[in-house]
Amino acid sequence: MNEENFFFLFIDIVQSRWDDIFVALQEHLFLSFISIFIAIVISVPLGIFISRRKKLAEPFIAVTAIFQTVPSLALFGFLIPFLGIGNVTAIIALTVYALLPILRNTYTGITSVDQSSIEAGRGMGMTDLQILMKIEVPLSLPVIMAGVRTATVLTIGVATLATFVGAGGLGDIIYRGLTSNKDELVLAGALPATILALGFDLILKLLENAATPKGVKAKK
């Protein structure tokens, strides 16, 4: 098969299966962003907590790092006997994979805030909560956003494996292409997943830059 024929086959498969691809894209976005949202809700407060109790930082970060060393399919398979198949299993597995970058960056960002800024806040009579919300979080936000960006790209990629636990997504299209030996169908599933990952990487990079305080930008 030459490149021109493959291109026309790809266009034809996209046109004929557009409804299936669009549904799979919606499922993929749902799984990815629910997982990222849960990971943020867990990791950001936990990162702030361990920044206050630094002896706990290494154990918590190590545990989340261990989860990331487990192969994706193995983690999905491990959860099936306990949770069955479906969205819940996929979301829990994806959330586990998204925890480390956000937790590590939250801890790093908070602990890297210049102590002179914190002392200046205390000198102005700020409470610990006010220092956290008005000084530490704003100054560490670019680092936290970098963790969210990494986690988002990772999650969008791993979400293609959600098909193996019956949760759908673009992995369905890829799997159908593999089982039917149709490379153009594989590409019809893989290309949108790649575009999603690259697109959200760019969007979150722009948000990361926007969250960087002007003074920090000037130092750079």
TrEMBL record:
Keywords: Membrane, Transmembrane, Transmembrane helix, Transport. It is a multi-pass membrane protein. The keyword Aminoacyl-tRNA synthetase does not apply. The chain crosses the membrane at residues 29-48, 60-79, 85-103, 139-165, 185-204. GO terms for cellular component: plasma membrane. It is found in: Cell membrane; Membrane. Its main location: membrane. This is ABC transporter permease. It comes from Guptibacillus hwajinpoensis. The lineage of its organism: Bacteria, Bacillati, Bacillota, Bacilli, Bacillales.
